[in-house]
Design brief:
4 helices; 14 strands; alpha+beta; 4-stranded antiparallel beta sheet; Jelly Rolls
């Protein structure tokens, strides 16, 4: 992994940074693959109906915009190359990956402290299991602000946006079920004259794409 600029910045919980995970050209290709008009105000999960469909509501804790890399975006050769690279690094089959969530934060925009864990609902079986890992990709440089911060760690850990950089952290403990409480994180406000582009790759315990077709996970993936 040396060619990717891999370094472990914390051992417990394990947080790894890859300073050269992508080229700048790859980062730009990923952030534009869904089209600029695809970005909409970010939402949060609302209620879930009997069929397993989860509604989306305007978020009160995040002010960013996002888009989903599905369909032609997902089939883009550069996007596929990046996905394959994540699979190689994590050794998790990409069938366990949700579609990339592309993000755009403009000056002053943020995402308050939150967690990516999506644990099993005790009222139903979740075929994909919980999200076990987050692979977060930075798709632009930011002059100031915009750090990914883990505020609950002592001392807090911050990762500065840099085009081509990526950071990997766990959402669960070794049992693959229990939430890792130390990896709450936040996107700090972007400073003046900056636009932060990034992407989330959320990785589940089991295959997420097949059950998503049937609405069994609360998210839908275009194959």
């Amino acid at each position: 992994m040396a060619h990717l600029g891999a370094r472990l910045i914390l051992q417990d919980p394990p947080i790894a940074v890859f300073d050269n995970f992508m080229t700048e050209e790859e980062a730009v290709a990923l952030r534009t693959a869904s089209g600029d008009n695809a970005f909409k105000r970010s939402t949060a999960s609302g209620t879930t109906d009997a069929s397993g469909y989860t509604t989306q509501v305007t978020s009160k804790v995040r002010t960013s915009q996002n888009a989903w890399c599905m369909g032609s975006c997902q089939k883009n050769p550069t996007v596929q190359a990046i996905t394959n690279r994540i699979q190689e690094v994590t050794t998790v089959d990409q069938g366990n990956f949700e579609s990339f969530q592309l993000l755009r934060y403009e000056t002053g925009q943020y995402y308050n402290r939150h967690h990516d864990y999506s644990g099993p609902d005790p009222t139903k079986v979740m075929p994909a299991g919980p999200r076990i890992l987050t692979f977060f990709l930075y798709l632009s440089d930011v002059p100031s602000g915009g750090e990914t911060e883990f505020p609950d760690l002592k001392p807090p850990v911050k990762v500065k946006p840099k085009v081509g950089r990526a950071v990997l952290w766990p959402s669960v403990l070794d049992d693959m079920v229990t939430q890792e409480r130390q990896t709450y994180h936040q996107a700090n406000p972007v400073g003046p004259d900056g636009v932060k582009f990034a992407a989330n790759a959320w990785i589940h315990q089991y295959n997420v794409r097949i059950p998503s077709l049937w609405g069994c996970t609360g998210s839908f993936t275009d194959p």
